[in-house]
Amino acid sequence: MKDIFDECQFGELNLNSRIVRTGTWETETEEGGFLSPAIYDKYEKIASSGTGLIVSEMFVLDHKDRFAPYSSSLNYLGFVKDYKMVTDICHNYDVPILGQLAFFYYDDGENQKAEPNDLKIEGIRKLQAEVIMAAKKFSFAGFDGIQIDMGNNFYLARFINPYFNQRNDQYGGNTENRVRIASEIIKVIKKTMDMHVSIRINPWDVRKGGMTAEESIKVAKELEKAGADSIQLTARTISYLYDGREKNPFLVYADELIDSLEIPVILGGSLRDMKSMNDVLNHSNVEFMSMSKPFVAQADFLAEWKANGEGESICQSCNNCYSKKTSTCFKY
To answer: Which residue positions does the secretion signal occupy (predicted)?
Structure first.
């Protein structure tokens, strides 16, 4: 029987459990962007409690981004020093950590909110260079890799989506072309840095002419071919309730995706109790699962689960932390 606290291999990374902590917003920084003691304390609790892999809070490319006021900054003077302390904390507990890059707007030098169809080749090269530079900064700060968010409604999610991308050059049209902007980034990072590259994608969307389950699997295959080391599934308004007998559509999709790839796939969603999570592990192809809001409600809850052999998060899924864009819980 598989268990969420199994030690396991995740590509080239060794994990102490199958649980991936995924960060969202960061609102506890001090003036100038420097990290507060509360942030170091939070990472210590997460890393020491039984987490297998940590994905940081979201970083944006520049201060004009839609989510910049609620996100971590790559561009303040203390970035490398501060985050080297964070990554050292994680590594002291043998927990690898990825820096999460997620940006909504992109400034191509001519338009602060240039959409995928607006970008000239020079704008695409500028974007690719900025993402590669972000990976290099993560490397300097001791991160084990980068996670590039191409899910939800972030910029690169729109770029690869046929609903938004109507380009008629080598970066538009078929799946390979739409993913090319990311494939080229991945190839450079893998060639020049010793970094794990993880990509977040959506399974589908609800737009006519948008991303289908079949298309997103093709996207994942292109990312794997380019050198991506893992895929994390993300989506909005999807329930992951599971009774061990019937799978909801998202779990069916996850099984198909895992069968289609050689690299690890992380299942994300409203996972809240140990029994349900172990049921998923033992009744599907899923090997790794991510959690986000439960760590906001209680950073070290996994220690109790591991000690007791069971447990349920105190998170009530009110979604206030996410919708109000804060890194602290409104109730606890």
So the answer is: none
